[in-house]
Amino acid sequence: MERIYKFAVGFIGVVCLALMTVLLISGWFWTCYAKDMTSQEVMTRTDNLILNLAGTAGMMLVAAGIFHWVKRNPKRRNRILLFVVLGWYLLIGAMLVLFGRTVPAADAASVFFAAQELASGNTNVIQGVESYLSYYPHQMGLVAYFELAIRLWNLLPFHALAYHAIKCVNILWACIHIYFQFRTVQVVFHRDRADTIYLLIMLCHFPFLMYTSFVYGEVPSIALFSIGLWELVRLLSLLAEERDGVSETCGGKLRRLAGPVLVSMAAFAGSVALRKNSLILMIAVTAVVLLEGLRRKRPLLFGMAVLYAVVSLTVLPFIVKVYEYRADNELLSGVTPLSYIAMGMQESSRADGWYNGFNIDTYMKAGTDGEIADQISRDAIRERLSYFRQHPGYTAAFYCEKFLSQWADGTYASRQATLATFGGRSEPFNQLYEGRYSGIFIELCNILQNVVYLGAFGFCLVSLKKKKEGATGPGLPVYICLIGVFGGFLFHMIWEANSRYILPYGLLLVPYAAYGICVMEDYLEKKIG
Predict the structure, then answer these.
(1) Theoretical Cys-Cys bridge with 280: which of 126, 428, 460, 487, CB 3.0 to 4.6 Å?
(2) Which value, in Å, is the radius of gyration of the alpha carbons in the chain?
């Protein structure tokens, strides 16, 4: 088992290094962005490497200067910096609510107004004919979350629509994500400088700030995943202490371990319920916990892996059944996965592999019959595969654009996602979306993404170097988020593409980037010294 475990760590290290090398090269040499907010066509440009180096060097120098202040009293001053970052998110988030004036649009609007109907007691949205929720039943977890928020909001003496309150709660979720990810960085890497760099990166993470006004599941889902991951890390630390000789009674042991187990399970389930793509991350979590359980010979970890898998796979079907029972009606099985795969192989007005309506059109054309929809999708896939084989140059260009449009967009489509407004937004925010500030926003986001990719690449490189030199490298739990990022990369190269879908993976890379930059600065200081 130990040999299998070491092989798994080495294999994951090599695969993650290869992925980060590709991301680093793509991010540093190309930038994808949307210039026209009407068509939202994704443009690709070649970057100026010198400007990218200058911007990255500037950010690292600022980080080094701030750490010079922090290192005099690192614990206390990092706490101060944490409160500054959280305060910044509260301030800018509130300004986005007041002056950005974003409203739910497209899928977000359909989910919100369905939840609003349910909150008013109308269950007609739960039906099997011409129902958005029958087409997309995986949204039921988000509907339940919105309905709860709306019902609580309706208890208060305010007349504003509830989505304003949801945006305010999103700001708190963003702060929760930062807090728990910061705690995880502290425990996993044990480097004050890494803690500082993490906070500085999140201070400048403008896309995440913008997404606090996006009335959808991205922000609360990633926050819940961060809570679950922190509790899992805490549990593994407690088990390590026990292995090192800390003894206690059976009751004390149960009380000590029950909290992290239950909280992590609930948080992971909530993350999947709000955003089904979180299943990709849960595959990584479950696989790592299972291997850790087998390696350590811990039945608890083996049982947790099984529970994580069961809860992640059943939480959404359970919510659907509850709503069906409540409405005394049934939803359809929904748009088929094969239609998303077929759509991911097709051209779109925004970028190759992005949404073009094929999935829902196929489902409607099939008369909401899943088997017929799958057959249409299989035919479309075979047709595209045949075309790809006959035109290899086109195929390479297609998947290159699909890849870059997702992973080389430092804004993560944050402007497109928060575009719709009520009554028009204030002029400075209009300039941010389509005016003179939009170019500055794109450049800043691009530089930040380059810094994250560079730091994460440094982490992977150093980890493999340690292993090669025979030193103790990171264990498999440290790689959980990187495994999730790799899974997301594979998934969205096959599935429907969108740079918005990449935001959670970009956030999960930040802790690795913080440690990687920390190691690179140590190396530079030794060379200069």
Answers:
(1) 487
(2) 23
